[in-house]
Amino acid sequence: MKRKALLTFIAAFTLILAAGQLKDSRLSPVKHAETGAEAFRPPRLAAPAPAAALPETPPAQAQTPKQKGISYATWWSGQYAQPDADLALANLADTGADWISLIVTQYQDNIATTDIYATAATPTDADLIHVITQAHSMGLKVMLKPHLDLAHDPDHWRGEIGEGFTDSEWQAWFSSYQAFISHYADLAAAHNVDQFCVGTELTATEGREANWRTVIAEVRDVYSGPLTYAANHGSENDVTWWDAVDYIGVDAYYPLTNKNDPTLAELLAAWQPIVASLANLAATWNKPILFTEIGYRSQDGTNRRPWDDLTGAIVDLQEQADTYQAAFESVYHQPWLAGMHWWTWRTDPFQGGPCDNGRTPYDKPAEDVLRFWYGAPPRLDRPSPQPDYRQTLEIYTDSLAPGWENQSWHAAVDFFSNDPVYSGAHAVAVNAQAWGALSLSQANVDTTPYRWLEFYLRPSTGEQQFRVFIHDENGAERRHRPLDDCRYTGGQPLQPGVWTRVRLPLSHLEASGRAIQRLSVMNTSAQPASFSLDEIRLVGAAWHIYLPTAVGGRP
């Protein structure tokens, strides 16, 4: 009887697992944990302690719902319309955000020129329409936020445009700007965009009040939704035409402390004078304030210069989480705040992670803070399988496995190098030109029994960069994954002269459950690179399921 009961339990448990798999197949991709082609969040590594003890519920808000926004951006044509971008947008929606700030950028040559133009890199109108349609289908509202940057002027930024203009140059520039911004206002009107931003951080132009009132009036002629302008932090009090828009917009990159490691209490104290100033601004104009951008890198000292794009500082996940928490605690309950749009979320569904020092909160402790305040459940921590080395497909172990061929390009490859070697007698030594690759092929390798591509890699220098990708059964090149993502290297970056195990989920390469013809490790450095690989294989997975012991002894 006990044995029959246990068998009944096992059968039921199996049905529950199967049902769970079917249910998961209908969920947003973010709900998966490496369960196939839709799985794109790798298992998280140990994170630092939470930013602070969070209250049970966020503080009470003003009656008008806050815009729970995230800036969604790319600077390359075509990327918004890629399937990976749709996955990234689904991840964004999963945070509890209900708005996106959709970024599109055009350019002028330098701060002294007056012609504004799209480049080959500017997202197309079709790209933007795709995102607007996708976002609306996910229940997200859209603020279209055109940006203007400098194409050939690295020593200046958009806030300095026009500093030396003559009156005639001002008229020429505003004429070009009007055409630029009206084009996107037309697009916003035609595709039911929920809000429109008429300009971003054009600080030196803001004193041209009459010109800006004309720009805004012409935008209102074609677009009937709410308008804002995004002033750079510090210049918001100098704008004299806030009455012409519906929201006072601020890109809120305020410096907070002079410390690289401030406490949460110190960050909160730094916000107090900022909050007082913003409250006074809102009262003066009787207008709500929208943080059109706010954000922090996950790097040491990010609170000191939040606008700074320098990437040399060490990763500091905790400081990013603390700055998020301090901003939310300081302003989210303020009655003058209309909402906030966090900078930034890119079109890469694998962005972020524990070794990334960029601004995205994705797969970092800051995402947990964002989710709490935006009312979303915590990130899912699903059980992860372990490698099952009883189920492998060897590709290289001292020599290429039978059937595999070398199809490398722009690279000299030695399959019998004996120095350095990770294991056994030989390793693969590669001398690749820039964008050259080790590439190994075999016809129609079935990946269904396997979960990972695993190999050991030894770069020769610290400047080397690599990507891995496969060709599918039709010979099509699939998704590239960079090896500077430490989620694939055991939590540590690649180091010169050191063998590092690389383990990539096949799903991240779009190689799961299909036939592949080729796998490649490409040198994406701008210069030649020498590196070695060893022990290249596909590896299966073992799931450990523990059943309860039957009550009353063994069955």
Q: What CATH first level of the largest domain would be assigned?
A: Alpha Beta
Any idea what the shape is? elongated
- The number of domains: 2
The secondary-structure class comes to alpha/beta
Report on this model:
There is one protein chain. The protein has 555 residues and is α/β, with parallel strands linked by helices. It has two domains: 345 residues, Glycosidases (TIM Barrel, Alpha-Beta Barrel), CATH 3.20.20; 157 residues, Galactose-binding lectin (Jelly Rolls), CATH 2.60.120.430. It is 24% helix and 27% strand. Strands 9, 10, 11, 12, 13, 14, 15, 16, 17 and 18 form a ten-stranded antiparallel β-sheet that branches. α4 runs parallel beside α5 and α7 packs parallel to α8. It is elongated and about 75 Å long. It starts with a helix and ends in a 13-residue tail after the last strand. The N terminus and C terminus are likely disordered.
